[in-house]
Write a structure and sequence with these properties.
Strand order of the largest sheet: 7-8-6-9-10-11-12-13-14
Largest sheet: 9 strands, mixed
Oligomer: single chain
Structural class: alpha/beta
Distance between the termini: 73 Å
Number of strands: 20
Helix content: 25-40%
Length: 457
């Protein structure tokens, strides 16, 4: 008799697990607390997968194994009962890993910020070098769906803390941890240490055959790592010159200087050859390049990939250069930490567009940067009082009633050599559907500007 696989949640993660489970001969039931999309139900009919929606029936507890969507907390009653009844509950990345055919290599990337950029760049570098590599995980296609598709030699996957919470045997060949700052604490009993331990689960199964790339500049990572006995090869990366780092920044170059399998490696990559901007993106780039080198990609093949890479939309996305003014869309920066990286990475004077639904932001960590780099702050929230309280007297502040007005004000305030930066530090729901809508409206407004036009406001 086929094993009973129950999948909680019919999003991309659940669909991927259902496809893989069906392919591997499981008796599959997908159960969703809400409604299941019509196209998803059509797919389930096509592959012979049973499903239920608008609630979980007792059929769920007939499982031999359960795969939980990362969006479902462990504390919900259905998960608690599964555990109480002795049914193993795992994440979709664990399920996918258990069904790899053998011989494939997995690169897993996590961190509070930067993991999407690093995942995309790593995939871009490897595929540009001619490797047969899949891209997915927490970004785009689920890992389980990719495993079901098959035919790949390498899998580059972004993994979240929620996904790592449900692993048992998951063991990437290259594990990358970029940074850890407070986030999602409502899922971790509002204890930062619980979130840190969740991120560190990425290394719990590593042996001397695998490698762990981590940012040694991150104090939280360095302190936590000291508590572990890690068998894998450790590669530290740093934004400062360091004799103990496998990769670091020095005098406008990324330096790769390390030994692996008794081979010495030394490479210098000029920062000017890299499409990404900002110190934090140099950390991301070092992680991606070091991974590629570790997987035997020649440095010569990486240069073109570094030049041609384009980051995701809404994350330090160069929209346009007009009359010497650069317009950058960083709408995905919905917290202060992300804005810190944006401000730190731009050398030119900045006209900063910010605001939205304030999530109790603590702006103290960027006050010095704002004072030294920002020439004017334009507030686009329906309530800009938090921004005014934080930056009054540090930088001139103007309110705008729309993104179009904000762009007009910025255009009038900016001079050649300046940067107009949309980096809100806030959620978008006061005036926009989501951060993508906010960024798209910014790009549309910038595209309407014409040469030498100075708008009166």
């Amino acid at each position: 008799m086929a094993k009973r696989l129950v999948i909680l949640g019919a999003g991309e993660s659940g669909v991927g697990a259902a496809i893989l489970g069906s392919k591997m001969g499981y008796d599959v039931l997908v159960s969703d607390h809400g409604a299941i999309a019509a196209e998803t139900k059509a797919l389930f009919h096509e592959i012979g997968v049973a499903f239920e929606e608008q609630g979980h029936s007792d059929q769920v507890y007939s499982a031999n194994i359960a795969v939980k969507s990362p969006g479902i907390p462990e504390r919900v009653p259905v998960v608690q009962r599964l555990v109480q009844e002795g049914i193993e509950v795992i994440s979709e990345i664990e399920f996918g890993f258990r069904h790899l055919g053998g011989g494939q290599k997995v690169v897993a990337i996590t961190g509070t910020n930067g993991k999407t950029t690093t995942t995309l760049l790593t995939h871009h570098l490897m595929s540009n070098a001619g490797l047969n590599v899949a891209l997915g995980g927490n970004i785009g296609t689920s890992f389980a769906r990719l495993v079901a598709e098959g035919g790949y030699d390498y899998y580059v996957v972004e993994v979240s803390s929620f996904q790592l919470d449900g692993i048992v045997h998951f063991k990437p060949d290259v594990a990358i941890l970029l940074n850890i700052t407070p986030d999602h604490l409502d899922r971790y009993n509002y204890e930062f240490k619980n979130y840190v331990r969740s991120k560190f689960r990425i290394i719990e199964n590593l042996t001397k055959e695998e490698c762990f790339i981590y940012c040694s500049d991150d104090r939280t990572i360095s302190e936590e790592l000291a508590r572990y006995h890690v068998e894998s090869c450790l590669f530290a990366i740093s934004a400062s010159k360091s004799d103990r780092a496998a990769a670091y920044m020095d005098n406008g170059h990324l330096i790769f200087n390390y030994q692996f399998k008794e081979r010495d490696q030394f490479h210098k990559v000029p920062v000017t050859e890299i499409a990404l901007i900002g110190k934090h993106n140099m950390i991301n780039t070092m992680a991606a390049v070091l991974t590629s080198l570790h997987l035997d990609v020649r440095i010569e093949k990486l240069y073109k990939g570094l030049k041609t890479f384009k980051n995701i939309a809404h994350r330090l996305e160069l929209v346009r250069v007009l009359d010497g003014i650069r317009y950058i869309n960083d709408s995905k920066a919905t917290n202060v930490d992300a804005v810190f990286y944006a401000l730190e990475g731009i050398e030119q004077p900045i006209i900063w567009i910010a605001g939205g639904v304030d999530k109790g932001n603590d702006y103290t960590q960027i006050r010095e940067l704002v004072g030294s780099k920002v020439r004017q702050l334009i507030g686009i929230g329906t309530d800009n009082a938090p921004l005014r309280m934080a930056f009054e007297g540090i930088v001139p502040i103007t309110d705008a009633s729309s993104i179009e007005e904000a762009v007009d004000i910025a255009r009038s305030a900016a001079a050649a050599g300046d940067v107009v930066l949309l980096s809100p530090a806030c959620a978008s729901f006061d005036r926009f559907r989501n951060y993508e809508d906010r960024g798209d409206q910014f790009k549309a407004a910038v595209s309407e500007l014409t040469n030498d036009e100075k708008l009166s406001v």
